[in-house]
Fold each of these.
Amino acid sequence: MDHRDRYQNRIELLQGTLDMLILQTLRWGPQHGYGISNAIRSGSGDVLQVETGSLYPALHRLERRGWVQSEWGMSENKQRAKYYKLTPSGERQLTAEHDRWNLLSTAIAALMNRGESEEEA
């Protein structure tokens, strides 16, 4: 695997994680892009910040895959905004991604904790 392949894999992991986070925020109800970004930021204790340059391509990708639908509406401050909502297919994808995330995070934690316990021994 050359440097370019490693970089591409990293980008795909980040996109997959962002997709999962967007789907999770939409599980709570339809939302416009700014609201999705705020939900991710506030829900993560201000640790995760999604830039518009990443958010909107992800939303368009999710819409092409049929995991979200969009329609125009009025925001809280009377501005025209595109609202996104989770589809039944998106709900199934979120469940699969959540299961995959749990497996991955458990595996990483096990590896990291094993390294710490070996250092203590």
Amino acid sequence: MPYKVINTSNGRVLADRAEQAASFFDRFRGLMGRARFQRGEGLLLEPCNAIHTFFLRVAIDAAFLDGDHRVIEAVAGLAPWRATRVIRGARSVLELPAGTLAATLTSRGDELTFELC
């Protein structure tokens, strides 16, 4: 079921078609195999505190979230075949098309809400 993701700190919409990957298999598969990752899409990996972009074809943005969905680390433009470090305190990661964090002025400390569509 898709979610609308809103930055409640500034009212901007990060995604209107975000999916959740909660099972081991869904988190493992993630975005692998997708030819495109379009504006408005997102993938919430939960639980998760580090990601990689192995086998991806596009760069992504990633917002690492604590248990209250507050951004504790924002990674912009993570290129294919890269990995992040483990982010201490992260409970989930919202993966977004590259450029989304800048376009929505989303940064560390912002709080996100997830509304069912």
Amino acid sequence: MEIILKQDVQGLGSKDDIVTVKSGYGRNYLIPQGMAIIANESAKKVLAENIRQRAHKEAKLKDEALVLAGKLAEVKVAIGAKTSTTGKIFGSVNNIQLAEALSAQGYEIDRRQITLPKDGVKEVGTHSAKIKLHREVVIDFSFEVVSE
């Protein structure tokens, strides 16, 4: 039995994949749970049209992300933090503070799109973070931590 997956199913495939499964698995589990539909000719045509439209939208979103990446490459961000006399920060700088600093300059970046180094930002100086603007567009963003 051929089915079209409506969502990711572990061990079977991802959304919009056409897969072959045993009839009982498809009719008794996947279709009633809303995870799949039967892959007849009309469903395949609808799927092809949806994929074509989604590809157009994805290309537009990727272009917008590339433009934003070009703008962010020129932005300088300084984040103030309370420090000791040796330059160590009390606590650490997190992605929320970086998102707020970017927001203050007019760039709305969600905090979940920002990835800081694993060991954290705990010293004054220039640091780097990764910002995921699109599935295929990830930039390295430099920012400076200064003492208040």
